[in-house]
């Protein structure tokens, strides 16, 4: 059964609230320094998967411009980029500079694509 437009909007708003809460929590944990950064990175990836839903596997493989166009919701993309930033910060804290650089580049690419889409 297909969701009505209002149901879709409510679902999207709930997903974004949950992603925002996860983002705040993960940033606090990362800043606290008490939790293993690899666990924080894993949780960031889980929050991204929840935010992007069933399309997550495909969206994470696409170039940023295409991914942003398919998502079509600026706030959702911005949250995604922020969660990828947490992933990058956790990788850096774990000593994985290669992963940190690639995740940081992905976050920057998402933001640049979002900026381009707004023009």
Uncertain stretches: none
Mean pLDDT: 93
Overall 3D geometry?
Answer: globular
Number of strands: 0
Strand content: under 5%
Write down the oligomeric state. Answer: single chain
Rounded radius of gyration (Å): 15 Å
Q: N- to C-terminal separation?
A: 36 Å
Biggest β-sheet strands, sense, barrel: none
Helix vs. strand class: mainly alpha
Report helical residue fraction. over 70%
* Helix and strand element order: HHHHHH
Number of helices: 6
Integer count of domains: 1
Would you mind describing this structure in some detail?
With 119 residues, the protein is mainly α. The N and C termini lie far apart (36 Å). It has one domain (5-30, 37-118). The protein is built from six helices and no strands. Helix 2 packs antiparallel against helix 5 and helix 4 (64-71) crosses helix 6.
Structure summary:
This protein is mostly helical.
Write the layout of secondary structure elements.
Elements: H1 5-32, H2 37-52, H3 56-59, H4 64-71, H5 74-93, H6 97-118
Helix pairs in contact: 1-2, 1-5, 2-5, 4-6, 5-6
Q: Keywords for this structure?
A:
mainly alpha; 6 helices
